[in-house]
């Protein structure tokens, strides 16, 4: 199975400009399951553009209920040609916000706040790079062409434990690195996979660890611009300060409760 078959999306160009340095706010969704939720209408809930083709600092107020974000959705970002017309649905109830029904082929990426379990075959975004992360057992071993001769010269296949492939625009594979250790680092310099020309990549940006159960753990090691994971299941609850990449636009969720108004 080829990479393009595994990933039904074309990695878009990364957003433009540096991400702000403000720290994220606290969590606002601690209600127990089944609790009756009631928030004052005076709360301000909005998405603010951090980077991308949409003007930096542009704020989109989220109304109560369900809306669609897209090139021509309820919250229209027509400047982002990589968004689908109705890329993702967002539901707001008071100060509770969740993402649902992702239909855009480029998906939606969420910035991680803590070490996060990811499945082999998932896509992450860091600096300006889209990276496919896999365990060694999920690396394709079939020849790339059905017309490959039965016997060809080449280096014997390795037995890697962690494997990362850079995804280029158009779905083509770029740089590839694998290791027989249980850990792989990514950054601008001095890492297993380094991108010295990536101005948004920190020196040591992220770490990928092979977990005891055979999965992968993704850890941001203090980068400035963050590490993002492509969402594969919805709905996903958002908290104040969360950053999401939709198309090629990076947005931050801001919530101002009525008590702070």
Give an overview of the whole structure.
The chain has 261 residues and is an all-beta fold. Helix content is 2%, strand content 38%. The protein contains one helix and 20 strands. The strands form three sheets. A ten-stranded antiparallel sheet has the order 2-1-20-19-7-17-9-10-11-12, with no helix packed on it. A five-stranded mixed sheet has the order 4-3-5-6-18, with no helix packed on it. β9 and β10 form a beta hairpin. The longest helix has 4 residues. It is elongated. The N terminus is likely disordered.
Contiguous low-pLDDT stretches (5 residues minimum) are 1-8, 20-40
Total DSSP helices: 1
Radius of gyration: 20 Å
- What percent of residues adopt helix (DSSP H or I)? under 10%
* Most strands sheet: 10 strands, antiparallel
Strand content: 35-45%
Strand order of the largest sheet: 2-1-20-19-7-17-9-10-11-12
**pLDDT average, as an integer?**
84
> What sort of overall outline do the alpha carbons produce when their principal axes are compared?
elongated
State the total count of DSSP E strands.
20
Sequence of secondary-structure elements:
HEEEEEEEEEEEEEEEEEEEE
What is this structure, in a nutshell?
Helices cover 2% and strands 38% of the residues. With 261 residues, it is an all-beta fold. The chain is elongated and about 65 Å long.
């Amino acid at each position: 199975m080829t990479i393009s078959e595994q990933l039904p999306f074309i990695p878009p160009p990364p957003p433009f400009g540096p991400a702000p340095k403000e720290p994220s706010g606290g969590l606002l969704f601690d209600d127990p399951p089944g609790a009756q939720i009631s928030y004052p209408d005076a709360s301000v809930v909005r998405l603010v553009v951090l980077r991308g083709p949409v003007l930096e600092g542009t704020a989109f107020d989220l109304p109560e209920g369900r809306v669609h974000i897209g090139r021509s959705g309820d919250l229209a970002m027509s400047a982002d040609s990589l968004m689908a017309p109705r890329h993702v649905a967002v539901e707001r109830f008071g100060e509770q916000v969740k993402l649902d029904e992702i239909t855009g082929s480029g998906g939606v990426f969420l910035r991680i706040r803590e070490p996060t379990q990811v499945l082999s075959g998932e896509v992450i975004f860091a600096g300006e790079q889209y990276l496919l992360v896999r365990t060694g057992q999920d690396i394709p071993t079939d020849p790339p062409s059905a017309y490959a001769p039965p016997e060809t010269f080449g280096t014997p296949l390795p037995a890697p434990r962690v494997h990362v492939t850079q995804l280029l625009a158009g779905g083509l594979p770029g740089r590839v690195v694998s290791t027989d250790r249980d850990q792989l680092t990514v950054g601008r310099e001095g890492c297993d996979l380094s991108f010295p020309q990536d101005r948004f990549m920190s020196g040591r940006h992220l770490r990928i660890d092979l977990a005891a159960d055979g999965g992968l753990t993704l850890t941001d090691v203090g980068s400035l611009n963050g590490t993002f994971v492509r969402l594969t299941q919805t709905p996903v609850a958002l908290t104040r300060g969360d950053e999401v990449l939709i198309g090629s636009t990076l947005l931050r969720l801001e919530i101002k409760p009525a008590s702070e108004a």
